Every structure is written in C-alpha cells, then in structure tokens.
# Entry
Amino acid sequence: MKQLFPFAIAAAAAVAAVPAEAAFTFTSGSGGTPIETMFNVRQPGTTGSLYDFGANLGNIEQFRIASPVPVLLTEFSLTQLQTTFPTFGDLYFSVSAASSAAVGTVANVSAFVTKPRAGVPDFSLGSTFLNPNSTAPNRANVIAQGTLRNRIIGVGLGHVDFGEDFSDTASRVLDTVSVSYTTLVEAGGNFGVAQVNGSVEGFTGATFNQTVYLDFYEVQPGSGPGTYLGAFGFSPKGDLTWYSKASVVPEPSTVVVGAGLAGLAAFTLARRHKA
Amino acid sequence: MNLKLNLTAAAFVGAAVTADAQVNIVLTGSTAGRSQAYAAIRAMYDAGFSQNPADPAPNAARQTWSGTMSNSVPALGTNVVTVRAGWSGSVAGIRDVRNSTGSLLVNVLTSSTPGSTTTTNLVADFAFADNAQSSTVFLTPALAETQLAIIPFVFARNAAAPASIDNMTAQQFRALGGAGINFLSFWTGNTNDMDLVNLVGRDAGSGTRVITLAETGYGVNNPIQQRQLDGAGGTTGTTFVDAPFNGGFSSGGSVATVLNAATTTEYAIGYLGLGDAASVPTSRWLKYNGVDYSRTNVISGKYTHWGTYEIANLPTISAQLAAFRAELVDTIVPLATTSTVLISLDEMAVFRGSDGGVVLPK
# Structure
C-alpha cells in the first residue's frame, strides 16, 4: 500500500520539493528495467524506531564505473532520516542491489553488497579507495545465490508495497513487515546467508559522531570472492558518499570550483535512475 | 454500495423492490476453493435457474448464474439474482473487493446463457480467500472476514520426475524458491544426482502461494523465482525456463497442466489446492515434512500445509448483500464436511492463529 505519511504531506514542499503524489519505485532488471540500488537503515532494539528507512540510489551501473571524484548521493535527506530515527544513532545500514534478469554485463541472480570497512581510513588529500579493507563476500552458484538475490530485491519491493513515502526515491517501512529490511537482513545482518561472510552492515554507534565506511562488492554467480568496487561513507550529517575504487579524495576547493565539480555534476546527472 | 440494483420502470414507480428488480452480485478470489463456491451458489438458487458455462463447470475460471433465491434468501424475494464469478486468486480477490470506486474490476461472463462468452468488468462484492487479508499487501481498508473452512494444499511432482521425489520439507522449499531450481540430490540423498528440479507455482495474486510461502517459512511477500515450460503460456514445451521474476501461473489448473505435461523429460514440483491436484495422480503427491496428505492428518495436526478459507467484503454492505452473504456462509460451511477440497472447522482438532502460524490443539 502506498501512502504518504502526514509528515511528508506537511513538509514536502518545504523539505523535499517533491510532489505529494510521488510514489517510491524500485526495479531489479526484469523487463529491461535497470538494476537499482537500495540504501537501507534500521535501528533495532527496544528503544529503536518502529521503521526502517530505504532510499533508491539508482542504477547499479553508476557504481560499476570508475569515478575519479567522490559522489554525494542525493536521493534522500537528513530530515527524512531524522524523521524515521528521531534518536539519530545506533543505526545499522547497508547498500545492496540484485538482478532479477541479466542486464548488460550483470548476470541474472547477481548481488551487490557492502561489508564493513575496518579501521578509520585516512581521508586526507590524495587518499584513495583502491583496495578493500574488509572480508569479501563469496560468489556462489545460482541456486545458492538465489536466496540472497531475492531478499535484497524483497527489501526494495517492500518499500514499493508497504512504504510510507517521502519521495519517489525515499521511503520508510514498519520494521515488522514481512519484507522489511529488518526482517530480511535478519539480526545477524547477513540476509540469512553464509556466503556474504558475516554482516553486510555498518554501525554508527550510539553517538554517531564520525563517518562510517562500507566496502562495496559485486557478487555475480560463480566461485571465489566478490569483486571490490569501492566504498560508501555515511556521515553524521546524513550524507552518503560514494568513493569508486578509482576515487582520489580531493581538496574541497577542487571539488567546488574545479574540474571536479563539472565531473561531479555530469556524473550525478548520468546516474539518476529515472529513465 | 456495491449492490447493483437495476430497477425497471415498473419497479421504479413502485414503492419497493419488486419482482421486476435485478440483483447483481459479483464474486471473486480463490481459485483453489472455486468448486465449493460453485456448489454453494447452485444450492442457493430456486429450481429453474440458468448457468454459464452449463453444469458441470465447477472449475471454470468464470461462472454466471441467474434465477431467483426466494427459498434460500427470502430477503431477496422474487427478484432475479444474477451472480457472476471471476476467480482470479485469493490475494487478487482481496485486492479487488476493497475497491468501492470502480477502479479495480473483475472480469466476468456477462450472460448466464450457456455458451455465451461475452465478458464484462464489474466491481467485486465478495472475495473468497485461502488466506487472511493480513497476509497480503492490501491492508486497508480492513475487510470483514468470516472463516468458512480449512483448505489444504499439496506438493506434487511432474510426470517425468522420479518416484524418489516423494517429500517436500520446508527447508527444501526455501532453497528451491531462491532460483526456482535445485539439485535432485536434495531429494535422493545421492550427491551424484545433479539433474535439476524446477519449482512450478502461482502468481502473487494467489492464496495457494501465500499459504505455501507462509507455511514453509519462506515469507509471504518475499520475492520468489519459479519456472515454467518454454512453450505457449508456459504450460507446454520441453524445457523449463524462468517464469517472470516473482511471477507464476494465475490458476492452479495451469500448474496441474504443467505437472501432467508429457512433453518434457525435465523434473518439476508444484503446489496446488486439492481441486486442481485431483487431476494429478495421487501417486505423484508428495509428503510434506514427511507426512502424507490425508483428511485425518490435517484434522489431527500432523499435516500442516493448509490455510483457512474465508469470505471477505467491505465492512458496510447493503441489507440484501448481507442476506445473500449470510446464506452463502450457511450453505458453504456444511459443504465442507463432505468436501474433497475443504475440511470443516468443526472437525478440526487443531487451529492456528495466522497463515503459517503454529498449529496448536484446540
């Protein structure tokens, strides 16, 4: 069921400038659609929110190509997050995508998952995300990987079917719903499958006071470890930034006024998932 | 209101509904239980009613009757009552019966004249369902739901599959639903058996699917991959291929057709209501969690692949619809005691509180 909850109705114009009738959408490759990517956030525990938050980050292809500059993802807002999680801490989050059909070089039953990146990276000028710092998920045969694929897609479809929508790219779902992120990722944070080698989630801690990073992997059916693509950084400001493994952290001035800005703008446009 | 009372000129000038009035009622929902609804509707009519398709047609996807129900539903008097049924699946029925604006319509046969194939799209008044509204994504508005009977389901293997596929566990089903395939070794125990077993099943509008996904712990709304044959409509052909992701067949009859297809040598397992499973030899019915289907095993709690058959409608309906509904309930409930598709609630020694919920003694 789609319904725009009261906050969004009241604040849509001021906060997101999204038409009130905007409904959350999500596709996974079937029928020639793009394989879209979900940013999922939950807050378990007795004091946690009743809701999970989800944002559709758009076509997975944007994360499969090298980007020389970090990309700020703009499909959701801090206000939407704080509306879902009034106490803005103790958040578990991940990014995932999966294919329900072969699309380009992505085979059917492929998955894309995050893994928590160890340590606190040095993000001074020139640092890169060339290498992962996490335990890679394993690729598996189609039969074994189907469960992971279906659960990842189920989270997206859960927002379509049960979401209270902030916009066409951001929504919240009661965490008790059968296809909520909380239900499908399970308490262990691994979507109930061993092949991801532990949790796919990052954790902000109770006092969310520094950016938490997750490595991002492509897991096509097969064997061996998944392919590292880059990393996401989730900041206390509610920003989610993508660092391709080719990204080099630039000086702020470079991003704002230099060629990086042009690249960022162009890339932002290119990755918008609405065809 | 959903009651469509088409008054003639004579009735219009009269003070009340007269013999000239037409009462039109639309039923939808469960395909698994359609043969029981068929029997109940026929039992409610006075002698001389018409029916399309002609009797017997208990498993037709669309059925239309017309006549009077003065004996069984006195409140309808001598009005001509036309009941049109379009069986689209339990979840689809719950989806459509919520509609009071005319945007969700049921495709039904217009005429009760046998052989007429003209169809029309109408708003549903009642939905039969194998599952509760709470197991669907269509949660509002809350419908009035009345439980009628227990409706069991079975897994069955296709004609080509070896007899060693004789059981389905919840775990096996959950693994099978991931990609719609699994190795034969999961059933034979011989790790050299690397032939594939395909899963054949229903679309998201199906209560049979809801109950199966709930019972096995797969998750009622969790997407599932199922398979179909590569020929026209997915029911013919030689090779199993992916059905559209999270899709499946719109009727149990199609699942049965695939399971009986002699055109393929590949292996498959499907899930069905007993009405559709009747066309599959019982020798190909599988145990569920090691227990054979039998009425006794359901009643005792040993066999747990079952749902609760119910009728659902908007909370507020007209007095005439309410009278029709009350008689329909009173007719269909006792049918379950002798039905091959349903089991009476009164016979059950066990119960469950929700679809797929724990089965407990009464």
